[in-house]
Amino acid sequence: MSASLSRPRVGVWLIGARGSVATTVVTGCAAVAAGLHPPTGMVTETPAFTDSGLPALSDLVFGGHDTVDCPLPKRAETLTAGGVLPPGIATAVASELAAAEREIRPGGPTPGDTRSEAELITAFADDIRDFVHRHELERAVVVNVASTEPASQGPDAPLPASTLYALAALRAGCPYVNFTPSEGMHHPAAAREAERSGLPYAGRDGKTGQTLLRSVLGPMFAQRALTVRAWSGTNLLGGGDGAALADPAAAAAKNAGKERVLTDTLGTTPQGETHIDDVPALGDWKTAWDHIAFDGFLGTRMILQTTWQGCDSALAAPLVLDLARLTARAHESGLSGPLDALAFYFKDPVGDAPSGLADQYEALTGFARSLREAGPGEGTGLRQGAGEGRELGQEERTERTNGMGDLR
User: Fold this and answer.
1) Tens digit of each residue's pLDDT (9 = 90 or more) over 114-137
2) Separation between Cα atoms, residue 101 and residue 72, nearest integer Å
3) pTM
4) Which residue, 191, 175, 172, is CA-closest to 125?
5) Angle between helices 94-102 and 72-81 (to 10 degrees)
6) To the nearest whole number, what is the mean pLDDT of the chain?
7) Which one, of 244, 190, 13, 243, lies nearest residue 107 by Cα?
8) Angle value at C-alpha 26, between 25 and 29, nearest 5 degrees
9) Which residue in 3, 11, 369, 401 could disulfide with 137, CB within 3.0 to 4.6 Å?
10) Which of 217-226, 256-265, 323-332 has the least mean pLDDT?
11) Is 14 helix (H, G, I), strand (E, B) or coil?
12) Within its chain, how far is the Cα of 97 from the centroid?
């Protein structure tokens, strides 16, 4: 057996596994592992993370759930035509794309799906367990990269799909990362289960563009004692996320994190709003404008305007790979509960974490140092709990499934 096959392998189970972000994640991981491209944008490939015990890119195995049926190789062709993936790269990693495609299972709930919430959670968890067992994986991390869903409509409303997947991850004994603004583990039903599970989790809403810049500029104004009077923003984007965010409820969930970082870093909420416009012609590309009105010495009024233009999938994919590797290592080290130190990657991070990017980066590199010092199952002293997580016994699975209606 080759050395690469003898090393423990780690699964990355993607919710929204045939989407643009997921396709870029699988393609990019294979390309970087093969030395076809440098790991640009991957913080875990910088010197601060050397010897932190993270799983190698070549040891990641991909699978996931999705409700669409466009196969990964075909989606990669579309992304290549749109300039998201470089020419020839999808062909070069065709076998890796095909392997990941074979591991994608039908998601839900879909129109006409008659399964109960408990049945959906059980089915999703069984898919994840089967993936782990067939590939003899050391562990797997579930990462939600699906399109944004509207906020749930109250305690009596059906559980959102993101929460069904989060509960399935816990049921399968897997740590969970929410890269989307969707409710996921934030729903009370999942939050209670997460506390009981002894598993680590992180989220929510990946910080890839406009909010990344805000988390730098907000502290700058505060530290220089400049008074921000108004901060307004506009986002133009297309693709699946643009279509999903055309729903006002979904856009509101997205904007909440964008605006919260300003309140947290400035110490006050400035006037102004953030708008999101769906422009299908832009495809996977987005433009974000910010207009900042602030006061200087003696009340002199000034303005800063910024423009951010980027490719959403190319910005998100390296962060997803970072998060999968860091969360897997945290799980191996025996950590449980919210991973505060991963706030660097999120608009609305779980746990108690600073909002400024510099402070978040300091916490992240400190986390890397603690992982370097911790062996498997030893914990790092940051947040140690029940350790490896576990698959529920049949009696406990039955109890929780039967009680699913009481979780809300």
Assistant:
1) 999 999 999 999 999 999 999 999
2) 6
3) 0.89
4) 172
5) 130
6) 88
7) 13
8) 80
9) 11
10) 256-265
11) strand
12) 20
